[in-house]
Amino acid sequence: MVNVANDLGRKDQQLPADGPGVVEDGSTVASLRRVVDHQAELLRREDEVNRILVQTVLAGGSLADLCRALVELFPGVALVTTTDGRIVATAGSEADVAQAMALECFDRTGRLIVEDEPVGVRTPGATKSERTMVRIVAGTSDHGLLAVFTPGRVLTTTDVHGLERASAVAALAITKEQAVSAVEGKYRAEFLRDTLVGRAGAPEEAIAHAASLGWNLDRRMVVVVAETDEDDSRTSRDAEELRSLQERFVRAWVQAVRTREPNAPVAGFSQEVVALLPAPCAPGTGEPGTTGTTGTADTSDANGERGSVMRSVGEIVKVVRGDGGGGRRTFSTGVSRPVESVADIPRAYAEALRAVAVGRQMQGESAVMHFDGLGIYRLLSLIPDSADLRAFVDEALCELATDDQPSYADLRQTLQVLLDTNLNVAETARILFFHYNTLRYRITKLEQMLGPFTTDPQLRLTLALALRIRQMRGV
């Protein structure tokens, strides 16, 4: 008992190590009583933590239940994140959660920056916020972090021990959820795969089956395909690492989609994730599944619809990528045209796959492309032999197909803008910040190299195609 009191480091609780008069000394007895009371309070607190955690386990509590229990123990905010910092469960008042999410330890997408967050207690002196984090580990598997934010209070050693026991409960809940999700996910993925290839049965049957899985197929939708840019068949990563990366990739997409559209079908396959997101109403009417009026207004509505879809997809993509990456692989995303019926989903799936492949050729890795944005690239991508495309470029652009001289790139840019402006010399000069006479000189030089494209529409078409092909990667 003497050693315990001395370990507390408080002057009013120091006890002599030995010597007479311990009982007769009133101050010593008072100190001893304070030590005993303190230890009793710690034991009571520890028993309360154990009782709440045991009740959570026996009730089959989820991660959300665990977070709510922790908020009762440690007033503030409690949350569980994945290994790369994505929040999967949280508890606390809206004001407290908002205050915690505004801290510097979260990025703009709401991801906890785990790369900069050490495990243990963080005090306000360095971080302007009291927070404590412990790892959630089951065997050799790291499942993420359990964190509590306690404004105005730093957790004691006993509190941290209680939080570590809570992390064991979190590991149990995660393991259980993963086991259930693995079975459900496999069943859901098989059904979604059948739907994508047209083997889900009649539309009414597919809609009813999807509803039993918590999915809504009875609405206007677009198919979104997210495909990893890395080719797993040519990677140096081992099988276990690939499996872990793909599982993380799928979980990130499922979480991001369900947060915005809880009833949207989403599942992961070998190197891709497929989601069926709701599309806005058909242009011009405000009613799904109908056609609008013809003319410019209809085209404007269609463009607005595509813009709305791409904004929604872009928000999901931004969340999945996060700021800083967190160890995730890059991926490209393709979006189909809207479909009105389950029977049209296979066609939309093919469009989304085409958008991914061609988008990567046009923009490189991390491309996000709508099928309607492919333009002429959609046709060019159907040519299987890239050698034929390269030969076409060499024949059409002659020496401009190469970068043998620094001026060739500038001449190609001039030619591209001229073609884009339909040979409007004044507009081209304005875009390129050229003097009119300088541009006329360049046009003369281009015609000497390529032929009379200003008067030959067929030659202009050939040159325009050659320039587009040259922009495609892999050609």
From TrEMBL:
Q: Where is this region: Disordered?
A: 1-23, 282-306
The membrane-spanning stretches of this chain are none
- Where does the record place the PucR C-terminal helix-turn-helix domain? 411-469
What InterPro entries does this protein map onto?
Answer: CdaR-like_regulators, CdaR_GGDEF, PucR_C-HTH_dom, PucR_C-HTH_sf
In which residue ranges is the amino acid composition biased (Low complexity)?
282-299
Q: Which residues form the CdaR GGDEF-like domain?
A: 202-358
Q: Which PANTHER family match?
A: CARBOHYDRATE DIACID REGULATOR, DNA-BINDING TRANSCRIPTIONAL ACTIVATOR ADER
- What is stated as this protein's family in its record? Belongs to the CdaR family.
Q: What is this protein called?
A: Transcriptional regulator
Query: Which lineage is the organism of this entry classified under, starting from the top rank?
Result: Bacteria, Bacillati, Actinomycetota, Actinomycetes, Micrococcales
